[in-house]
UniProtKB/TrEMBL annotation, chain A:
The keyword Membrane applies. It is found in: Cell membrane. This is Nucleoside ABC transporter membrane protein. The keyword Transmembrane applies. It is a multi-pass membrane protein. The chain crosses the membrane at residues 14-37, 65-83, 95-111, 117-140, 149-171, 202-220, 249-267, 273-294, 301-320, 332-352. One of its GO terms (cellular component) is plasma membrane. The lineage of its organism: Bacteria, Pseudomonadati, Pseudomonadota, Alphaproteobacteria, Rhodobacterales. It comes from Albidovulum denitrificans.
Automatic annotation (TrEMBL), chain B:
The keyword Cell membrane applies. PANTHER family: ABC TRANSPORTER PERMEASE PROTEIN (PTHR43370:SF2), SUGAR ABC TRANSPORTER INTEGRAL MEMBRANE PROTEIN-RELATED (PTHR43370). The keyword Phosphoprotein does not apply. This is Nucleoside ABC transporter membrane protein. It comes from Albidovulum denitrificans. Keywords: Cell membrane, Membrane, Transmembrane, Transmembrane helix. It is a multi-pass membrane protein. Its main location: membrane. It is found in: Cell membrane. It holds the Pfam family BPD_transp_2. CDD domains: TM_PBP1_transp_TpRbsC_like. InterPro entries: ABC_BtuC-like, ABC_transp_permease. The lineage of its organism: Bacteria, Pseudomonadati, Pseudomonadota, Alphaproteobacteria, Rhodobacterales.
Length: 362, 310
């Protein structure tokens, strides 16, 4: 039998190595899954991981990578701040939806005014909407001790209901012949979020994601608040003695992650999605949880992880159209990745020793 | 005796049916949490139970086999959780979330081609003339067997936790795993068994959704029932009987809002359909605040991993 021996400090080498190991293991297990579905596993893995980057249609698909990675990065960077401090905001999907609705509502309210101030105002609105939605679980946690995991999750369902009300009711396109969905932002220049350089997929959300990564890195490495976040996660008792206010951290971490998720929602709805529709949200808020862990809660790691996850989205769509792979297979694949990641994390926190061997040494 | 065209006896009858899935999932999670394990994957286990139960029932033609299949499917996926948290010592919150994401994807993959099929119907328990008692017969005595089985399970869990040695050991493991380990109890084994029991219950609850409550298969059919079950455990302050009350409360709200929608009440449909979630939040707030807050009753080792250093 094996025994586990806790490392005094987590292994640095394994902290870097585990994400790669987890991805490799997921490819093997995913290959088995695809084979079980009657597909050629090598063809599927190549379609998902190789073709979007270097295949025939890579010119177009590389842009799609940025489009998908931007919201994942924005949300995951925010979530990671909370996860580091032991604050579990898992309702990012709801904050994403509400941010999108708030920001879009500002733009739609002034339609068809053309002014350069409209889009910045909408960005603020998006961040504000997400922040407000995240403040609900944060306030309930700090004032009433309510579990933020359950409250933030419940608010996702509430947000989805509000979204369907928005798409069919208060934000519906008055000229849309009664079809659900708001006015299209692609034909409203002052409020749209177009591709900045044609064919690259680069839009303002990508820019914001890069800024968020750098901002979060600086916050964690160079700022007192970042230090407090890390301290509260690793040694809550020590943090209390050092005078770190747990309530303040909850409010700040939830607020920042909510605002970032709201931003992601706004950039998505004005750009790639194009309008408020009943189902414009495709679960980025939940996938971002995987991204945060895959990136080891490190901002730059998250950026890489988001690109990888975007690859599975883009490649998964390719595999669905070209090879008939069911689209839900990709969600299974992403879920597997998180499982493997959590499993191999053992290697960075513990040493594995053969029980018999240890005794001989003694 | 109708309000808004809603007959109270029918309302109570459908309330009892609506509360079965969350009651089963919540009582299972209660046992898991009593053993000190926080399994946030209830939603994932439930939906696996729903899809496995549905597939089994369609192929065997027997709803009972479906329930067994549902329990087995949920237990299978929970083994991953057990392995990760008990052997690999992974973070329980993250692993539970992973199980929910994985379960939602896998169930949708497995359920392909089962949309629009009707599962074999579950017969009511024949109680003969008792069913003809006015009001009581319609409200309480004309249900399928799982309604009564779920109540019996709650009673069973209560009795085992309160009066039996097994229950005492389980609680000891959940309150202080180091002390339990020092007394020679197999902390890890007990926790794995508790996780499996919780999964079986969540699976039964999920299967009840797809076989009786809805009854058909669609993606994401459990629609947050697993999360509500988790909230009910907090609402119940980890006491089995209160799970019963909690499940009836939430079942009642669900049924009432559906009935109000059908009856065309003047409240917009959207506000009605978000009400179960809002009321869950409200109840959580009431239960977790103040002096007698539920959190004080939580198992002391809840969510902490156990690693025997000696």
């Amino acid at each position: 039998m094996f025994t586990l021996e806790k490392r005094p400090t987590p292994s640095k080498a394994w902290a870097w190595g585990t994400p790669f190991l987890a991805v490799a293991l997921t490819m093997v297990a995913g290959g088995l899954l695809f084979a079980a579905l009657g597909k050629d596993p090598f063809a599927v893995v190549r379609t998902i991981f190789w073709d979007p980057l270097f295949g025939e249609f890579a010119r177009y698909l590389r842009g799609q990578l940025l489009v998908k990675a931007a919201p994942l990065t924005l949300i995951a960077v925010g979530l990671a701040l909370g996860f580091r401090a032991g604050i579990w905001n898992i309702g990012a999907e709801g904050q994403y939806i509400i941010g999108a609705i708030t920001g879009a509502a500002i733009g739609l309210a002034v339609y068809p005014t053309e002014s350069r101030w409209i889009f910045p105002l909408m960005i603020l609105g998006g961040a504000f909407g997400g922040w407000v939605w995240a403040m609900i679980p944060a306030l309930l946690r700090t004032k009433f001790n309510t579990n933020e995991i359950l409250v933030s999750l419940m608010l996702v369902y509430v947000a989805e209901t509000i979204l369907s009300k928005a798409a069919t009711g208060f934000l519906r396109n008055p000229e849309g012949m009664g079809f659900p969905g708001s006015r299209s932002f692609s034909s409203y220049a002052a409020a749209g979020n177009p591709e900045l350089i044609a064919g690259t997929g680069l839009h303002w959300g990508v820019v914001a994601a890069l800024i968020a990564v750098i901002w979060a890195y600086v916050l964690l490495q160079r700022h007192l608040l970042g230090y407090q976040i890390k301290l509260a996660g690793q040694a809550p008792r020590a943090a209390r003695f050092a005078g770190v206010s747990a309530d303040r951290l909850v409010m700040l971490c939830m607020g920042m992650s909510g605002a970032l998720a709201g931003l992601a929602g706004l950039f998505e709805v004005t750009g790639p999605a194009g309008q408020i529709s009943i189902d414009f949200n495709v679960g980025y808020g939940f996938t971002a949880i995987i991204v945060a862990f895959l990136g080891r809660l490190n901002p730059f790691g998250i950026l890489l992880a988001a690109l990888l996850m975007a690859l599975t989205y883009v490649g998964g769509e390719m595999a669905a159209t070209n090879l008939g792979l069911p689209s839900s297979a990709i969600r299974v694949f992403q879920g597997m990745l998180l499982f493997f990641l959590l499993a191999v994390d053992l290697l960075s926190n513990y040493r594995i020793r053969l029980a018999g061997a240890a005794r001989e040494v003694r | 005796m109708d309000f808004y065209g809603i007959n109270p006896a029918v309302l109570i009858a459908s309330l009892m049916v609506a509360s079965v899935p969350i009651m089963l999932a919540a009582i299972g999670e209660l046992v898991v949490e009593k053993a000190g394990v926080l399994n946030l994957g209830v939603e994932g286990m439930m939906i696996m139970g729903a899809v496995c139960g549905f597939i089994t029932a369609v192929h065997t033609g027997s709803p009972w086999a479906g329930f067994l299949g549902g329990a087995a499917g949920a237990m299978a996926i929970s083994l991953i959780f057990a392995l990760l948290t008990q052997v690999f010592l992974a973070n329980q919150v993250a692993t539970g979330l992973a199980m929910t994401l994985f379960g939602l994807g896998l169930s949708s993959l497995m359920g392909q081609g089962y949309n629009g099929i009707k599962p074999p119907a579950m017969a009511d328990v024949p109680l003969g003339p008792l069913e003809d008692i006015p009001f009581i017969g319609r409200a309480f005595l004309s249900h399928d067997a799982m309604v009564y089985v779920s109540i019996l399970i709650v009673a069973g869990v209560w009795a085992v936790l309160k009066y039996s040695r097994v229950g005492l050991i389980l609680r000891a493991v959940g309150e202080n795993h180091d002390a339990a380990h020092a007394l020679g109890y197999k902390v890890r084994r007990i926790r794995v068994l508790a996780i499996l029991f919780g999964a079986a219950m969540a699976g039964l609850g999920g299967a009840y959704v797809s076989l009786v409550r809805v009854p058909q298969w669609t993606d994401g059919i459990t629609a947050g029932a697993g999360w509500i079950a988790l909230a009910i455990v907090v609402f119940a302050s980890w006491k089995p009987w209160r799970v019963l009350i909690g499940a009836y409360l939430f079942g009642g709200i669900t049924v009432l809002q559906l009935n109000l929608q059908a009856a065309g009440a003047r409240i917009p449909v959207e506000y009605l359909s978000m009400s179960p979630y809002l009321i869950t939040i409200l109840v959580l707030v009431i239960m977790s605040s103040g002096k007698g807050r539920a959190g004080l009753n939580a198992p002391a080792a809840l969510g902490q991993n156990f690693h025997a250093s000696r």
